Amino acid sequence: MEPYASILTDLKQKTDKTIKHMKEQLGSIRTGRASPTLVDTIRVDYYGTPTPLMQIAHISVPEPRQLLIKPFDGSSQVVKDIEKAIHKSDLGLNPQSDGKMLRLSMPPLSGEQRQKLVAKVKDLVEQNRVALRNERRDANKLADQMKKDGKMTEDQCKKAHEAVDKELKAVEQRLDESFRAKSKEILEE
Question: Along the chain (189 residues), what's the average pLDDT of each consecutive run of 10 residues?
Fold first, then answer.
């Protein structure tokens, strides 16, 4: 086993976390369709504790452009708290309440709104790309330090750098695929 295997294992774990985080961020960006992931990041002040919406309510998609949010706790205060949290979010949606559940209707997006959302997705992907570059830099520094400490030869250090670059290229391809898929989803009518 190569002495730099631990560096690659650690890098893989970090890059997987970055990709997972980015997918969560992308899931909360509104498209023309309703999706429960749209409200994943919303936190509701539930009896004084900020709680993820999905932990206090059932979220379903009864129609392609509508979300139905039904709290597990049937009190009208919880419905009001959820409504308040949705208004605070940057989704730009207006919930309709019947006192027991909320409906979120997704209005169709204009061409200009779609372009702005694609630009937002591009910015998110770029932020995550920067995070990946930082992870690559840290992994390469660790390999250089191991070489300096005598735990790795010059050739092994060079192989470690090549393996790190190869891993990052594969992860960046996943980023690009996510960007293309989300952009396509946003731009579809």
Answer: 81 91 80 75 85 86 85 81 84 81 82 86 92 93 90 89 92 91 81
Q: Which of 175, 18, 38, 11 is nearest to 106 (CA)?
A: 38
Q: Can you give the pTM of this predicted structure?
A: 0.68
What CATH homologous superfamily does 5-27+110-187 map to? Answer: Ribosome-recycling factor (1.10.132.20)
Q: Please say whether the structural domain 36-105 has been given the CATH code 3.40.50.720.
A: no
Contacts 24+ apart (CB under 8 A), 23-30: 23/178, 25/124, 25/128, 26/121, 26/124, 26/178, 26/182, 29/117, 29/120, 29/121, 29/124, 29/182, 29/186, 30/91, 30/92, 30/93, 30/106, 30/109, 30/117
The burial class, CB within 10 Å (0-12 / 13-18 / 19+), for 162 is exposed
- Sign of the dihedral defined by the CA atoms of residues 140, 144, 147, 151, in that order: negative
